Amino acid sequence: MSSSSDEEEGSSSTLVAIDTDKNSKYTVKWAVDHLLEKNSSCTLIHVKTKSLNRNEFDSETKQGRPPTEEELHHLFLPFRGFCAQKGKKLVLQDSDVSSTLYDYIIDHSIDDVVLGAPC
Prior knowledge:
Blueprint: E1 12-17, H1 23-34, E2 40-49, H2 54-59, H3 69-76, E3 87-94, H4 97-107, E4 112-115
Parallel strand pairs: 1-2, 1-4, 2-3
InterPro entries: Rossmann-like_a/b/a_fold (IPR014729), U-box_ubiquitin_ligases (IPR051348)
Keywords: Ubl conjugation pathway
Organism: Pisum sativum
């Protein structure tokens, strides 16, 4: 991963958190339309939750379990066109989504963060 010192002078970094929700597509489009400029970069991030109890994980239904690698690949497909030139994809795994996002934002000196919410 690049740090702020590796970025071009005057560039900004935008982090867009996505999920399997259909509203994520609108969130990414809004970020690209309103925040991305010539010297900016866009990172699409998804936090893959992990269960703390292995037995609990094995008994969960498809809707209740974390996505598989193939499902994660499909998660990013709709966003190819939005961030094709300037975008990165990132999947982090942790049981606490908000803390994981916060730590990444602080550690990588992210300028703009876009989180979606149902309308």
